[in-house]
UniProtKB/TrEMBL annotation:
Belongs to the binding-protein-dependent transport system permease family. It holds the Pfam family BPD_transp_1. Residues 30-223, 306-504 form the ABC transmembrane type-1 domain. SUPFAM superfamilies: MetI-like. The keyword Iron does not apply. It is a multi-pass membrane protein. This is Iron ABC transporter permease. GO terms for biological process: transmembrane transport. The chain crosses the membrane at residues 29-53, 65-85, 105-124, 160-185, 205-230, 251-273, 316-333, 345-370, 382-405, 426-448, 483-504. Its main location: membrane. It comes from Nocardioides piscis.
């Protein structure tokens, strides 16, 4: 991509990149990306903080189920989220009277829906392990609940809050499916602009220039997030506090949590209801139509596309697990020098890049790189699984690294001193500890691959699409039947993803909170 941006036709041309970056539309797209991501991040943090407190510090009924349910929006395919909000806010939808369809407000709402789970998960994990004694001491000395919050709790939680906000901003700025469906061409971000320049305008130099710009910004943001994540705080140094019974003073947080749960549930319920409504009333006709293919809009039945999605996700999962386990073992081994420690840190950062570098950029990079011998994978069935495995790789690494890093290296040394080979030590020490987190990581990787759309939209073949690609094609063609089938396919994909994440929640480990 760097070569396509700076050396078009083999000639160094930095002026071409500068011309792209100074275009009026690019400036508007960049500004919209920044401010929509900032607003989405602020709203997600404001809504996520009380929910994190209630679901991680209070003994409310069904809190485990609620925590799992709140995680589902984060792993839903972005196409499904876009469809749900269009149905909710569009003409004839429950909130259609607000006239927000196709507006920046709709995009921000979709971003908040998608990312509020990050704040709940990350801040909640820190809040759960927060020592309650300083706050209790402040209250005993006469501090009001608001004073306890501002002077004791917030300073302790600040690293977790800022780190979560950094990650949310990263996800908002690289969102693709949500912005593409809700904003179209009128309200574009850098992410969707790269897609437009590549697939519609065929301006590869401009797309490459924006991709390089995006990667530079992402590297900076990942560096900031890594420094914030490594900031020591008191919460991470104590064992988890037992949840307490709700009090009268917790009423505002409980009400705010109820609002968050409602905001998360309404788009999903609207999607399910819309998939079963037709001109003739309530019917499963949209679901039955998914089994019919062979048309220009739907070349294969959605059932076949679901099989393709599952098969591709299985391949991507084992690839991501193999790479992720190797990376996690590499970066968590004890370093013998400062230089070796820095090398391991750099490697960890490199393998985390797909978490922030957009899937569209990743798919575009594959498209222009693996298109000629000796590595020509354009017609290979492995191309899409490889791209999806790279998208899922950071989730696997972030799940496994904290667990492996917590293993006392003296256990490995003791096993080696007793005559165990390196492989025997790996099997008897590391894998014995990491097998349960590995199962959880496999669930995250499978769910992420199942709904991946950005890279897949570039790489999937017309005769072998995945379900997210089929949904986007159905939405792009007018007709009530096409729209109804898109809703039905979205429900099937969302249900499959939710079931996977419910299973992952039962295997949840403390490190998963960092996701």
């Amino acid at each position: 991509m760097v070569a396509r941006g700076f050396w078009p036709g083999g000639t160094f041309d930095p002026g071409g990149v500068l011309e792209v970056l100074t275009r009026p539309r690019v400036a508007r797209v960049a500004w919209f990306t920044v401010w929509s991501s900032a607003v989405g991040t602020a709203v997600a943090v404001i809504l996520g903080l009380p929910a994190a407190f209630v679901l991680h510090r209070l003994a409310v009924p069904g809190r485990r189920v609620l925590r799992a349910a709140m995680l589902v929006p984060f792993v839903l395919p972005t196409v499904v989220v876009g469809v749900a909000f269009r149905l909710l806010l569009g003409e004839g939808g429950p909130l259609g009277f607000l006239d927000l369809d196709g507006t920046p407000a709709a995009i921000v709402a979709g971003l908040v829906f998608f990312n509020v789970a990050v704040v709940i998960r990350a801040v909640g994990a820190a809040w759960e392990s927060l020592d309650p004694r300083p706050a209790e001491a402040a209250a005993a000395l006469g501090a009001s609940p608001s004073q306890v919050w501002w002077t004791v709790t917030l300073p302790t939680l600040r690293p977790a809050i800022v780190s979560a906000a950094s990650v949310v901003f990263l996800f908002c700025s690289t969102a693709f499916g949500v912005v593409l469906i809700l904003g179209g061409v009128r309200h574009a971000t850098i992410e969707t602009e790269i897609y437009l320049l590549t697939t519609t305008l065929f301006d590869l130099q401009a797309a490459a220039a924006l991709s390089v710009l995006q990667m530079v910004v992402v590297v900076v943001l990942l560096g900031v997030a890594a420094r914030l994540r490594s900031t020591p705080d008191a919460a991470s140094q104590r064992s988890a506090a037992r949840p307490r019974r709700p009090r009268v003073s917790d009423a505002p947080a409980l009400v705010a949590t109820g609002v968050v749960i409602t905001l998360v549930a309404v788009p999903i319920v609207t999607l399910v209801v819309g998939s079963m409504r037709t001109d003739e009333g309530w019917s499963l006709a949209n679901y039955r139509a998914l089994g019919v293919g062979g048309t220009d809009v739907l070349p294969v039945p959605v059932t076949g596309a679901l099989v393709t999605s599952v098969r591709t996700a299985v391949d991507a999962t084992w690839m991501a697990l193999a790479m992720g386990l190797a990376v996690a073992l590499l970066v968590t081994r004890r370093s013998h020098s400062r230089g070796e420690r820095r090398v391991r840190s750099v490697l960890d950062g490199i393998f985390m890049l797909p978490l922030g570098v957009s899937a569209v950029t990743l798919g575009f990079g594959f498209l222009i790189t693996l298109d000629r011998p000796p590595v020509d994978l354009r017609d290979s069935a492995l191309l899409v699984p490889i791209a999806q495995a790279l998208v899922a790789l950071p989730l696997v690494v972030r799940t496994l690294v904290p667990v492996l890093a917590a293993i006392d290296d003296r256990q490995r040394q003791a096993a080696a001193s007793l005559g165990a080979s390196p492989w025997r030590t790996l099997l008897s020490i590391d894998l014995l500890v990491v097998w349960k987190p590995l199962l959880a990581a496999s669930g995250f990787a499978f769910a992420a691959s199942l709904g991946e759309f950005g890279a897949t939209s570039f790489l999937a073949r017309d005769d072998n699409p995945t379900v997210p690609v089929v949904i986007f094609r159905l939405l792009g063609h007018p007709g009530d039947l096409n729209y109804g089938m898109a809703l039905a396919a979205s429900v099937i994909l969302a249900t499959t993803t939710a079931l996977v994440m419910m299973a992952v929640e039962r295997l949840r480990v403390p490190s998963a909170g960092a996701l």
